[in-house]
Amino acid sequence: MQDILKEVFAEGSDKQAWLLFAVPFFARPFGSLVFGWIGDKFGRALSLQLAIWGMAVATALQGCLVPSLPGVNWMLAALRLITGLSAGGESAGVNTYMSEFGEEGREHTLAAAIGINNVSGSLAFFLANTVSLAVHQLPHETQLAWGWRIPFLLAAPLGVVSVLLRRSMKETHEFQKILGRALKGAAFIALSFELRYASPKLQVAVLQRQHS
Fold first, then answer.
1. 43 near 180, Cβ under 8 Å?
2. Which long-range contacts (CB under 8 A, 24 or more apart) does 122-130 make?
3. Which pLDDT value is given to residue 207?
4. Residue 198 sits in the same domain as residue 158
5. Over pLDDT 90: what percentage of the chain?
6. According to the model, what pLDDT value does residue 58 have?
7. What does 135-189 look like in DSSP terms, one character per residue?
8. Fewer CB atoms inside 10 Å of the end CB: C or N, the chain?
9. Rounded to an integer, what distance in angstroms lies between the CA atom of residue 182 and that of residue 179?
């Protein structure tokens, strides 16, 4: 698709086209950090749901861009940045999610799940190249007019299916344990603070110390 998008968005510049294509790959490591923080703070399930939304929406919107608009290259770069960040979060988040479900006695299930995840990535790459090959079979004028939009717009129905499947995703037991310990710690601190400053004896002692 690089050769088509080069003419659509980059005015025939190979350098500009490759830079636009490189944006998601540079963003992926940062996506692992950002969505990893979200997963640690708010839950693995939420992190994965946001990641799939980011990939689906940002990819589909790329197919809706109007090449003649001013600043469209910056819009494309921003959408590709979101795609890369989301893909990085997805890749790291899925492995974390499955590893936390790999409790004692389920090691073989965990290994199989991670293997399936890697195979599904390869399958997605194969399908993307198949769609790209199909687009290249269209007349050149058709490719430049609307054919280039097809791979991006196909992300919309696939994204809807993925979002619906993840609506019932449960939080991992490991994160629930971490959250429970954090809540207990916060409750203990709040109780200590309340006892320290709400106790009448302590209040009198503090007042006497202030006046002394």
1. no
2. none
3. 43
4. no
5. 16
6. 92
7. HHTS-HHHHHHTGGGHHHHTHHHHHHHHHHHHTTPPPPHHHHHHHHHHHHHHHHH
8. C
9. 5
Closest CA to 87 of 125, 42, 115, 113: 125
Please write the tens of the pLDDT for every residue from 26-55: 999 999 999 989 888 888 888 889 999 999
Across 157-185, b (16+ Cβ under 10 Å) vs e yields ebbeebeeeeeeeeebebbeeeeeeeeee
Q: What is the pLDDT of residues 76-132, one digit of tens each?
A: 999 999 999 999 988 888 877 877 765 556 656 666 666 666 676 677 778 888 888
Please give the span between the terminal C-alpha atoms of the chain, in angstroms, as a whole number: 80
* Shared-domain flag, residues 65 and 105: yes
**Threshold 0.90, pTM exceeds:** no
If you ran DSSP here, which 8-state letter would residue 66 be given? -
Expressed as residue numbers, the domain containing 190 is 172-212
Longest Cα separation, the chain? 92
Q: Structurally, how many domains does the chain consist of?
A: 2
Same domain membership, residue 195 and residue 160: no
Same-domain status, 129 and 166: yes
> Would you put residue 71 in left (φ > 0), alpha (ψ -120 to 50) or beta?
left
